[in-house]
Amino acid sequence: MACMKAHATCPWVLAIAAGLFVQFLAPSAFAHQYWLAPSRYQVGVGQVAEIGAVAGTGFRGERKPWSPLLCVRFVARTSRMLDLTRAASPGDLAWARFAPSDAGGAMLGYESTFTPIELSAAKFDAYLKEEGLLAALAARTRGGASRPGRERYRRCAKAWLAGNDPSRATIPLGLPLEIVPEAVPGSGADLRLKVLWMGKPVVRALVKAWRSPIGATNAPADPEARDSTAVVWTGTTDAGGEVAVPVTRPGEWLVSVVHMEPCRDPAEADWESTWASITFERPADRSAASR
Prior knowledge:
Layout: E1 12-14, E2 33-38, E3 49-57, E4 60-64, E5 71-77, E6 81-83, E7 96-100, E8 106-112, E9 115-119, H1 121-130, H2 134-143, E10 149-161, H3 166-170, E11 177-181, E12 190-197, E13 200-201, E14 206-212, E15 233-236, E16 242-246, E17 251-262, E18 271-282
Parallel strand pairs: 10-18
Antiparallel strand pairs: 1-7, 2-3, 3-4, 3-7, 5-6, 5-8, 8-10, 9-10, 11-12, 12-13, 12-16, 14-15, 14-17, 17-18
């Protein structure tokens, strides 16, 4: 199928619209997630899916417009790697529109630049504890944690549009912090994941998962209208950076992890964090995940 933006051999129909000033909701003691939000995960050949991004908690949040100033990369792996920033024009909440030309699926990935933030000592320490960032918390305790938390943070978000080519889902995209499925997301009752930091496994990382039902229309509910859901599962990666997330129930799934280390630019912040997420659907009909 021809690409809508003059990419005649593109395997997906692509039309990107973007919006200026993506304003991430800052990490806090009640940390906000950031995820890629397709209008549907089960996309048939020739069907169109809109792709956007949301910041919020438990699948409830605010749709974020695209900002080229904050984007490091926005890509999709189909039968080949696509750069989704090429046709971007600031202003729209719909970042991309796809119509697949095959049934292989697509892994979407987005990486942002850093955004600085400063929190009070109490809020920053509570946030470190909540996200399992115990090394940073211990370092602050040793140094006297009465000072504010000076941090810069970035986002590394992925979404899986369902298909039957495992390689499109399981090969890393090369994001700084990345959640990498070891099988097609949604195809089994457990999804084994590997958490990579700069391509290397992260040991004892705290991984969280949320689930939200998807109705008969196969379209996720509007994130600005639906209720927030609580975390349904937490786990810790093993010595190989791996963890198995139970996804037995159908619906939309969000999995996230955070990594923090001392900031490479002390003039800007004391700490820098990277937030990674992946969204996908576990269909009610399990066989649909492989179609």
